[in-house]
Amino acid sequence: MKAAFGTEQRTSVLLIMGLVLLYTFEGGMKAVIWTDVVQFILYFSGSIAAFFLLLHRIPGGWDTIVHAAAATNKFRAFDFSFSLVNPAKTYTFWSGVIGGGFLTMASHGTDQTIVQRLLAAKSEHESKIALLASGAIIIFQFALFLVLGVMLYAWHGAPAIHPGQSYDWVFPDFIVTAMPSGLRGLVIAAIFAVAMSNASGSLNSLAASSVVDFRELRGGSIPGGSDSAGFLRLSRWMTLVWGVVLAVLGTLRWGPMLEAGLTIASITLGSLLGLFLLAFLLRRATASGVLTGMFVGFAAILWIHFYTPLLWTWYVPAGAGITFLTGVIASLASSLGVAPQKAK
Asked: Can you give the pTM of this predicted structure?
C-alpha cells in the first residue's frame, strides 16, 4: 500500500486489518476458508503474471537472468556446510532439513492456524489429502517466488544491496513502476490477498483458542446448550481484541519481512511442539510438568534470541528440545509425591 498509494506503514496496516476484521468477525471460519480460496487463486495468478512480464521485459530473457545469477551462485540448490551462528550460512542443507523439518512439524501439526483448517474438512481422508497437497503446492510456491527474486535481481542490473537496506521494497517498486495499469492492479491485489489471508487465519485461530480456554475455565459447556450464543458473542469479541493486538504489532518495525515473520514464529513454535511431544510420548507427563517445560522452553528461546548468535533456523529444534527435557524432569519430579495427572 505504501508503494502504490503513498500511505504510511501504520495507516496501511490499520486499513488492511480493518477489512480483515470485517469479514472474519461476520463470517467466522467459513468466511476465512472461502476468502482464502479466492485469495490463493489471486496471488498465484498475479505471481505467474509477474514472472512472464519480467521474462519479457528483461533484455535477453532467460539467458540474461541466468548470467546475472551465476556470478553470485543464486541458482545454487544445496549448501552442505554446517553452522549454527554464521549469518552467511543461515540457509544450508542441514538447517533446511533439520530446522525446517522441526518448523514444518510444528506449524502443520500443532499450530491452530493450520489445524483448524484440517478440522474443517468433512473427513479424516480429506484432511490428509489437504495436508499432502499443501506440501506440493508450497514447494511450487517457494520455487516460483525464489525465481521471481532472481529475476528482479537481474531486472535491477544485479545490484548490490547495501548493509541495513531491506529487500522488501524491490517487488512493490517493480509493480508500481514497470507493470501496465491493469496487471498492476491484479498483482497489488495479489499481495493484499496474501496479507489478508494470513491475518484472517491468525485472527480466527487466536479467537478459537481463547474461547476454548474460557470454556475450560468455566468448567466446560455442552455444544448447542443454553450458553452457545454466549460463546459465539465471546468468540466475536475475542476476534476484535486479537485484531487490535495484531494491528498494534503490525505497526512496529521488525526488519526484513520474511525473516522477521519466520523468526517470530520459530520463537513460539518450539515450545508448542515440545508441549505436544511431551503429551504424546511421555505417559507420565503431568499438566504442571508440561506447563513448566513450555514456559522454560519459551523463556530459553527468548534469551537465545536476544543474547546469543544462534541462527533463527535452529530455534524450533532448540525450543522443542529444551521444553521436552524440562517437562520430563518436572513431570517425573511432580509424580514422585502426587499421582500423575495426564496432560491434555
From this structure: 0.78
